[in-house]
Each structure stands twice: as C-alpha cells, then as structure tokens.
Amino acid sequence: MRGPLREIAGLAAERGERAYLVGGVVRDLLLERPVHDLDLVVEGDGPALARAFARRRQGELREHPRFGTASVTIRQDRPPLRIDLATARKERYAHPGALPETGPAALERDLARRDFSINAMAVPLHGSGAWRVVDPFDGRGALAARRIRALHPASYRDDATRIFRAVRFAARLRFQPAAADRRRIRDALAAGALDPISGARVRTELEKIYGDRHPARAVAGLERLGALAALLPDHRYIPPAHRPQRRLERLGPALASWKLSLTAAGIGLLALGWKRAGRAAFGRRAGLRAEQREAAATALERSSRLLRYLEGESASRAGSLHARCRAESDMTVLLALLRADTRIAATRAQRYLETLRHARPAVRGSDLIRAGVPAGPWIARALAAGLRARLDGRAPDDAAEAAHALAVARRLARRT
Fold it and tell me: pTM for this structure?
C-alpha cells in the first residue's frame, strides 16, 4: 500500500500540492481493521493528480467532474487496488435536507464538513508532519470510547441521512451513538428532519445498510432511535420482532448464490412494521417504483399463506414442496423463510431455495409427443408429475421418471 502512496505523494509535491489519507481508511488503520480501498484528499486538483498517477501506473481512471473526484484502479496489484482522490472542499447547506453546495478549501474545512469525528481524521503523505494523524475533532478519543459523535450540534438537521450512517457505523464497529448524539437525532426526527429527504436518498441509505455486514444491528438502531417511525409520521409504526432481520443477516452470503436481493428482502421485512396502507406508503418513501411496490406487497401477503403450507404434512414431501413453492416468486419463499416461527418451516423454505427450485424434468415434451402422445395442455402436467415422482422417490432414475410422465400424459390425453 505504501508504494502507490509514495508515488502519489511525489507527484503531489512536484505539482506544489498536498495529499492526505482521509476518513474511513485512517479510522480502520487506527482500529487495525483490514483496508481494501484508499481515500485521499488533495489540497489542489484531485482529478488532475489522479490523471497523472493513472498515466504513471497504467491504471484505470474514472472521473466525476461535478464532485471534483476521480478514482484510479490498479489491476496489476493483487488484489486490485482502488484509490479515490478528491479535491479538498467545503460545504454549505442552503436549508436542512438540501444537497450541499461545495467549493475548494483547505484540509481543515474538508474535515469539518464530514459526518463523524471517527471519519474526520487525515494523514499527510509528505512534507512536515508526514504520516502523523491530523485529528481536529478528537476522532481517536471517540474510537477509544467506541462512540459515534457528529461534528456539530446541527449535523443531523442539516443532513438527516447521517442518522442512517450513524447506526450503520455503530453496527459495523460495535460502537454506540454518544448520548448527545442520540438526543440530537431524536430532536431532529421530532422536527421533521427526514421529511425533505427524497425517496432515492432513503433507498440509497437502506442499500448501504443491507450491503454492510450487520444490517440487523443497524435496523435495530434505527428502531430504537425512532427513525423508522419518523419516515411515515401519518402511519403508526409497531416494531416487528428482530428475528427475521437477524435471520436475513445470517443468510446474507447465501443470497448472492441464490441470486436474490438482500436489500429487497430487507425492505420487505421493514414494511411489516406498518399495516397495509402504511406498507404501500413505505414503499414509496423507500424510493420503490410502482411495480416494485406491488411485487413487494404481493410477496409479503402470499408469504403468510405459504407459511401455513410449510407447517403442514404435505410440505415434508419434496415433490409437493417443489410444486407449491414453484408457484410463488422466489422472494415470496424467501420472506416465508425469514418470517417462519418454527425451524421446520424455515428448513423447508431453505431447502427449496437451495436445491429444489433448480430441479427440472429429465424428460421433455417433445419426447412424449414422439412416443405418441398428442400435443396439448396435458404435456406440461405430465412433465410436472414425472418430476414430482422423482423428487418423492417414486421414480428412482431418469428412465423411471420418463415412464411415469408418459403414463400420466396418455391417461390425461384419453380423458379429453
């Protein structure tokens, strides 16, 4: 890591600029946590310095002129290293909840615009004080106390999305918001600080929570602070049990292999805190499109019915379980798994998602037609019957499944 940083420091010095490690990377280094990507602030022109560094290291460059930022990815390193460079800037909020107006500034102003003291530290890469921590807001003290502390009293009113970030960092690091911060968050919520925050920004913060390692802890933090209730002040919010969120957290790594959305499932569970009208309003507040809101509402409703099936005797048979769950969306089955009150229902739903939903008939409709069965709607029913026989163990191999499907197809065709 130090090699690329020394190169950037040398380039910055040649240009008469100063470069600093900032924010989360400094925090994680002090906590001796793994560091994967590097964030740098430049007193000068961050994107220009990024371009010079990318040319020298033959890195992939991406620029964001509107924000005065750029990123360089070095593919030759293993694992690939990404370095984000930004021009040091100041921010001004025209009114609470607005996106900030920005302009170039010195390091001190850049650090002062940040969210929490643990993220407002820097390390100069060259010049006087090189590799010594710049800590104007006692971030190291907050690390030692394991506390999340905003930089100024109006922080949560200026930008209420910091409430989501506070609980996310607290969950990730096993910290707690400081007592003064908890009071200021509740005061900001009572003053309607979330009202001007757009659905798109709420959605972004929820995606970050569910993209982190401990979403269940973060959601519990939002509930304790009253943030979820404040999202929809016209609807009464009743916090649901946290077991479904904890189960979702444990399943997080598996969901990627199942090709299911952790965020979509999490938002579905959050919607359980409201009655039907409130759930629809929450979908809008969370920035979901109309079709996404409809799909989420349908999945929640149908998961309740599916749970009743999963508790029954017929769900113990693989063929029946496959046929019943295949009639639902995968998200419906996942929500049933997350909401299940018994181990047996959860195990059955998980069995379907992990293995049974990939089961396909070993015989094709064209095979039945070549065997003399006339084309018709009975073909699909016969294929499903053959697969069900195989999954239930009544057809031990492909040949037995094909024979069973053929017999069912002939019988159904004769009836018409």
Answer: 0.86
Assess contact for 116 and 164: CB atoms under 8 A.
no
Q: What are phi and psi of 84, to 5 degrees?
A: -100, 130
Task: Going residue by residue through the chain, which has 416 residues, state the pLDDT in tens, using 9 for 90 and above.
Answer: 678 899 999 999 999 999 999 999 999 999 999 888 899 999 999 999 999 999 998 889 999 887 789 999 988 777 788 999 999 987 776 666 666 666 678 899 999 999 999 999 999 998 888 999 999 999 999 999 999 999 999 999 999 999 999 999 999 999 999 999 999 999 999 999 999 999 999 999 999 999 999 999 999 999 999 999 999 999 999 988 889 999 999 999 999 999 999 999 999 999 999 998 999 999 999 999 999 999 999 999 999 999 999 999 999 999 999 999 999 999 999 999 999 999 999 999 999 999 999 999 999 999 999 999 999 999 999 999 999 999 999 999 999 999 999 999 999 998 87
Buried/exposed 315-347: b ≥16 CB within 10 Å, e otherwise: beebbbbbbbbeebebbbbbbbbbbbeeeebbe
Block residue for tokens 């009150």 = 341
Nearest alpha-carbon partner for 210 in 151, 167, 239: 167
Cis peptide before 79 (omega within 30 of 0): yes
What angle, 0 to 180 degrees and rounded to 10, lies between the N-to-C axes of helices 330-339 and 262-270?
Answer: 60
Rg (CA), the chain: 28
* Class for the domain spanning 1-137: alpha beta
Spans of all domains in the chain? 1-137, 146-285, 290-358, 365-415
DSSP letter string, 189-216: HHTTTTTTS-HHHHHHHHHHHHHSS-HH
Structure tokens at 227: 């943030």
Amino acid at 58: Q
CB atoms closer than 10 angstroms to residue 8: 26
Q: Are 23 and 69 in contact (CB under 8 A)?
A: no
Tell me how far apart the alpha carbons of residues 371 and 214 are, in angstroms, rounded to a whole number: 55
CATH of domain 146-285: 1.10.3090.10
